[in-house]
Amino acid sequence: MKELVFVNGTMGVGKSTVCAELLSLLAPAVFLDGDWCWNMSPFVVNEETRAMVLDNAAHVLNSFLHCSVYRFVLFCWVMHSRDIVDEVLGRLDLAGVRFTLVTLTCSRQALEARLQSDIARKKRSPGVLSRSLERLPLYADMGGVVVDTSAVTAEEAARRIARMFIKV
């Protein structure tokens, strides 16, 4: 059986880093970071680009799901409402697929420290801090499995998630 694992959470909780760790822990696995579908210049968010990104993500995820080589398909993205999760799922061929939603969260203090560090290193723009803090409460009632990354490394968080599927 294929395992489709969505990892969501606000910006800065560790989605990309945790999924990069999960990739080797859950091998054979494949990983799509939703941010890759938004890697554009200029960065424009409107109905047209949003539709394109959803189409592209669904196409890649369906390709991964149909490939016999991989058991685990990992997808991370800032899905701040359950409607977004459901919209992506609704575009996928889920025959023979078990779906798991993992929500990463952390304390406000940990989130501020991580994002301030990223801003100082010019990895993120200053506006991300307020946007991420505003979205943090939206993940409280998402459903699925919640993993608090406040006081653990990405590797430790990935191991907690991987243990849901295999012995690590």
Describe this structure in words.
The protein is an alpha/beta fold and 168 residues long. The chain has a single domain (2-162), classed as Rossmann fold. It has 6 helices and 5 strands. It has a 5-stranded parallel sheet, with helices on both faces.
Quickly list its features.
five-stranded parallel beta sheet, 168 residues, 6 helices, Rossmann fold
Strand and helix map with partners:
Blueprint: E1 2-8, H1 15-25, E2 29-33, H2 47-66, E3 72-77, H3 82-89, E4 97-105, H4 108-120, H5 128-135, E5 145-148, H6 154-162
Parallel strand pairs: 1-3, 1-4, 2-3, 4-5
Helix pairs in contact: 1-6, 4-5
Tell me the name of the CATH class: Alpha Beta
How many distinct folded domains? 1
Shape field: globular
By CATH, the architecture is named 3-Layer(aba) Sandwich
CATH topology assignment: Rossmann fold
Short précis:
The protein is 41% helix and 18% strand. With 168 residues, the protein is α/β, with parallel strands linked by helices.
